[in-house]
Every structure is written in C-alpha cells, then in structure tokens.
Amino acid sequence: MTPLLSTHGLIAGYGDMRALHGIDLTVNPGETVALIGANGAGKSTLLRAIMGLLPVAPEMIRLDGKPVGGRAPHHMVREGLAIVPEGRRLFTGMSVEENLRVASEHAAKPVAEPWTLERVFTLFPILQEKARTPVENLSGGQQQMVSIGRGLLAQPRILLCDEISLGLAPKVVREIYAALPEITANGTALILVEQDVGLAQRASHRLYCLLEGRVTLHGTSGEISRDAISAAYFGASHALD
Amino acid sequence: MHWIDGIVQGVLLGGLYAQYALGMALMFGVMKIVNVTHGDLVVLLALIGISLANFAGLGPWAVLATLVPIGAALGWLLQRALLNRVVGNDPLPSLIATFGLSIALQNAMLVIWSADTRSLSGGGIQQASISLGPIFIGVLPLIVLICATLLTGGLDLTMRRTRFGRSLRAASADVEAAAMVGVNPRNVYAAATAIAVGILGFAATFQAMRSTVAPADGPFQLIYAFEAVIIGGLGSIWGAFAGAMILGISQAIGFRISPGFGILAGHLVFLAVLAIRPQGIFQRKS
C-alpha cells in the first residue's frame, strides 16, 4: 500500500545550517504518528519542511506517492496538509470567527465529513462563546484551540501539530488531547510533535525519535520500552549510564 | 460665516485628499508597504487621462472609466514585478525600491509630457455651483466628496466582510501563517495594490479637472496621503477618510487666515497629531 505521506532521505535546514540529515518517515491514513526528541533535534524543522516552509527537493516528500517536495505552503494545503504551528501564529486584530473563516475559505477539497465552523464549536464549545472576540484577548489554551480549529478547517488529510501542549495548564492539555480521537475518526492522520514523551506514547500509534536531525528510533508506540526511548532520545552514550 | 464656509470648503477639499489616502491606507496602513510612487502614479494617470481626452476625444467620465482599470493594471504589475520582492516586516526595502522608481517615473513623464502644467476639461462642470444661503458649494467638489465617501465605505466593507479582505488582513498579520492556511500572499497583495492604484484613477481624474498637473507634482500628493493615513491611524479605512477631512479643513481654514499659511496649517495639524496621539485618532492602542 502506498502511504499517505512519506519522506525519503529528507534534508533541510536554515541557510548554511543543515538541521535534518536524511529523514525517512511514513504516515498512513487515519494514523497518529508522534515525533519526540530533545530541543533542537529537528522536529519542528521536519514539520516545516513537510508543510513547504523550507526549500527541499521534490522527491524528498511524497503524498500518495506523488512527489510534492518544495511546493509553496498554499499548494500543500490544497494537497491536504495543514499545520498547527509552534507558537499558534494566530491572525491578531481579527476575531476568532474571522481566523477560522480564513482557513475554511482556502481549504482543500474535503475528503469525507467536512469540518465546519459548527463542528469546531462542538469540539471546543468555548470558541463559540468567544466567536467575536479578537484572538489576542484569549487565554493561551483558547488560542491553541483556535489554532487547531484553523488547521481542521483546512480539511486536511494530515494535520501536523507542533507542540500543542507547550505552555498550557495540565487540565487544558488533557482537554485538547481528549479532542484528538474526534479528529482522527474521519480518517485524518496526525503527526504530533510533543515534549511529553509519556503523552506522545499514549496518544500515538507509531513513534519516531529524532536526535540531531536523524531518526534514532522508530516503532509501534505501545511496544517500545522506556529504556529504548531514553537511549534514542539522549544518544547511545547516555544509555550506558 | 467666513469660518463655516472655510469648514465646508475644507470638507470638499478633504474629499480629494481621501481619494489619495485610500490606496495609501491599504498599502501602508494594512500591508506595511511604503510606496513612494503613490503621488507619481496619480500624476501619471492624470497625464494619461489628459492625453486620452486630447487625442482620443474622451469626455471626463469616459476618462475616469478608462483610468480606473489602467490604474488597477499598473498596480497589479507594480506589486508582481517589484513590491512582492521587497515585501516583509522591514519597510525599508520597499521605501528604497519605490524611491528609485519614483525618480525614474518623474523623469520618464518629463520626457513624454514635458514640464508644462496641464488640466482636463470637465465640460463646464468645474464652474457649476449650488448656493446654500451665503455658502457656495461647487458641483465638482461635491461629486468628488460623494465618490470618496462611497469608495471609503466600499473599501471598508471589502476589508471586513469579504474573503479577499480577510485574506489580506491575515497576510498582513502573519504572512507565513496565512500561507499555512492556504492563502497565496503574492496574489492577495497583487490584488490589493491593484485596488489601491485603481482608486487613484478617481483621484487622477478629479485632480486634473479641479486644478492642473505636471510631472513633478507627485511628492505633494504623496505627503497628503501619508499625513491623512497617519492622522487617522494605520489600518483604519474610515480613519484615513477622517484624516483626509482634518487635513482638508486645516488647509482651508489656514488659507482663510493667510493665503500663504494654508498648506503649512495642514502640516502643523499633522505634526500636532503625531506629537499628541502618535497611533492616530482612530487607533485604539499603538
């Protein structure tokens, strides 16, 4: 079976600094894949490269087997990718509803049951209450919900989530993670970049561990031992301690 | 009565300034692009219009109907060919690029049209006026004011209520994030500049009918447009309209105080706003 998304020896970086040294990754429809790794391991760079925000060669990223690497982000949206970016990156000066509508007005052709403003409001009821509030007046958790809603309204086949729990209270993190099964129920695949390894393991089917721009571990989330993860996370030398 | 007449004439003059200012409100206020050629484009369009009237025999309204699409095409080209390369958080590259283009445009116009001042015949409408008691209101300035009001209302609604307006505001807030949700910022910016320069088609026609134009006039109109947008507050369309009114009234009253003081009075009011309320009158916070 052709995977939904695959990367092949993906190399990317910023200017002269190379951050990814040949990443091979696959994502199947409806699957949740977690990316873990220390700060600077290249997790966010990988998501940015997949989304078309960094220059890469065409063959390095395939969607349905078709090479799409290096296309502009708005092309990637049309192909069925969406991202919940690190730091949320909402449109300030615009209301919650306007932020969501920008996404729904430029969405990909929906696959199965399309995401609508109403469905996003059912998923995160607080957003309906705050629909007319400028996004800069929301709490961090509410802003993260807008950012996720914006990603969903792009009607993605794969949603890339970059550290959606960062800086949020544990209760809010639980609330947001509780919404993930509803998202994948349609067959939408998720790539989760997550700092909390335990959370990443519980929320995903498969897991990739990155270290200094390379995949050091990859397997089924439920079957990987803590020791294997810490060896892959910190590098082999630390695992001997 | 002297002063009431001053205010009325100021509002009418403000109508013309609002037409300069709207495009600037879109480009500088929303997109944060400093377009130094703004005034030169008014002059260029006006001179094209005058030539169309002289050589193709077009009447003033046909000139207006021709200049708006020509302006839109010029704006689209300007954004595609030049400004999309320099757009970003730093306004300096756009300032430098358009400063160079401004000088080139002025000199190119000098070659084609010479330094003569020219104007567009309005077929008698320039002299027509309505009297309201002791105050005379020119028909042409009144038309200019009505057009300016309609353009402002239309542009404001476009920004707030349409898909295009939302895309443009999103791209101005965070261009990368806008691209991440499927907006193509280059297309949106090209359309916005097309609208901005298209509106200058109105300003050019009315400027050429009301007074005269010459190739070196652009910088004056540029200054008025900048002042109106800054008085009103960046990002506010009706703010730019109000800024243009304040500028027009200040100048008209200044002229009544002393004929040489009019233009300076406008600049002084602008500086006062900048000192007291630098974020502009219609901006909530800086």
TrEMBL record, chain B:
<comment type="similarity">
    <text>Belongs to the binding-protein-dependent transport system permease family. LivHM subfamily.</text>
</comment>
<dbReference type="InterPro" id="IPR001851">
    <property type="entry name" value="ABC_transp_permease"/>
</dbReference>
<feature type="transmembrane region" description="Helical">
    <location>
        <begin position="135"/>
        <end position="159"/>
    </location>
</feature>
<dbReference type="Pfam" id="PF02653">
    <property type="entry name" value="BPD_transp_2"/>
</dbReference>
<feature type="transmembrane region" description="Helical">
    <location>
        <begin position="221"/>
        <end position="241"/>
    </location>
</feature>
<keyword id="KW-0472">Membrane</keyword>
<feature type="transmembrane region" description="Helical">
    <location>
        <begin position="95"/>
        <end position="115"/>
    </location>
</feature>
<feature type="transmembrane region" description="Helical">
    <location>
        <begin position="188"/>
        <end position="209"/>
    </location>
</feature>
<keyword id="KW-1003">Cell membrane</keyword>
<keyword id="KW-0812">Transmembrane</keyword>
<keyword id="KW-1133">Transmembrane helix</keyword>
<keyword id="KW-0029">Amino-acid transport</keyword>
<feature type="transmembrane region" description="Helical">
    <location>
        <begin position="41"/>
        <end position="58"/>
    </location>
</feature>
<keyword id="KW-0813">Transport</keyword>
<feature type="transmembrane region" description="Helical">
    <location>
        <begin position="6"/>
        <end position="29"/>
    </location>
</feature>
<dbReference type="InterPro" id="IPR052157">
    <property type="entry name" value="BCAA_transport_permease"/>
</dbReference>
<feature type="transmembrane region" description="Helical">
    <location>
        <begin position="253"/>
        <end position="276"/>
    </location>
</feature>
<protein>
    <submittedName>
        <fullName>Branched-chain amino acid ABC transporter permease</fullName>
    </submittedName>
</protein>
